[in-house]
Amino acid sequence: MAARADPENDPPNDPLETRRRFAARRLTLEPVWYSALGQSDRYLDLLTVAHVETELPASPAVPSSRHLDVTRDSDVPISTQIYWQLVYQIDSGRLVPGARLAPVRELGAALRVNPNTIRAVYRRLAAAGYVTSRHGAGTVVAERQPKRRRPDALAGIVSEMLRRAAQSGFTPDEVAAATFAASSERRHPGPLVRVLFAECTTADAGHGAERLNNEFVGLIEAEGTLIDELPDRLDRFHYDLIATTTFHADEAQALVGGRAPVLAMLVGPGYVDMVLEIVALKAGARVGLVCASGRGAANIAETLSIAGTKGVELIPVLIGDREGLADLSETADLILMSREALALGLDTDLKHPDRVRPWTFEFDPAAIEHLRRSIDGVISEREASSA
User: Fold this and answer.
1) Alpha carbon 286 to its chain's center
2) What is the largest CA-CA distance in the chain?
3) Considering its fold, how many domains does the chain have in total?
4) Cis ω on the peptide bond leading into residue 77 (within 30° of 0)?
5) Phi, psi of 267 (to 5 degrees)
6) Residue 48 forms beta bridges with which residues?
7) Are strands 220-226 and 131-134 parallel, antiparallel or unpaired?
8) Domain limits at 227?
9) For burial by CB atoms within 10 Å, which of 116, 185, 331, 360 has the most?
10) What is the pairing mode between strands 138-141 and 131-134?
11) How far is Cα 280 from Cα 26, in angstroms, rounded to an integer?
């Protein structure tokens, strides 16, 4: 019986179309990620495989089976194993926008997996916004990916967790099961009051959460997140309170949509004075924004706009851009530096360090007291409901 055509994932029949797609391909270096499931010594083992994609490559699909690893005796379903690996490759840039995934039957045969399992994985990727499918074009990585934090940082965290678990005698499957169970439990209220602190940069969000944890030891469990990630976090986990600085209170209220109380926390006078200094600048003034990411700089610019900044030229520069930093040192009237930039000592490398302003904040004592009362309110509600 002839195999039924799969227009969604099979390569096009027109050789000219195939030639057009792959004529411009160059020599690439592509890291290969192996799953941790059942094989701790191979977890996140990034091997570099050099391959030349000629004008008409024998197998235009990426990734091939050599890029994926299936552990059949794992408690984690095979479809989930494949999905996790493809998500990692997309998030980390191993699979770039426009890259075409292997046809369903080809990948299924290579992995010795039922084609329906591969179809289910591709449908799950499409539903999450990672890929798109078109008739005759197959399944390709989407141009606009879901927002994710640095996958290399996450890889390091997981690798360290697996190493420490192995030293204590735990297998990767046991770690995966415990992680899944802990994640599931976080969808429901826990013994501590869960607080999600949102800010415009990752460093500020993490600093704020750490500050709150230190202030309310044994009462809360605070986490940091970016403002625009609030809806996603609330979809996945339970939080009793959402906290942010007063600059982002309205935005946070809109993003949270009433799913949890939002607390607007006052910041110390130093931060407010800095913002007011920028707002008071004359039109045409140049202000540098030195951050670890373009996203962080954009969020700082949005904060300044909310505060009333007008006519000021905002110049974003990433912390690794030495040429850009040198230009700011010569031409900027003020230079705002994020916590990450200050931690690297970039302020000491500038010609006019007196123009540097730290884009950092500390909470006003009134904000801490406001949060304390809200925490007491959550605890009182829990006690009343359990009585």
Assistant:
1) 30
2) 78
3) 3
4) no
5) -105, 165
6) 31
7) unpaired
8) 188-267+365-386
9) 360
10) antiparallel
11) 51
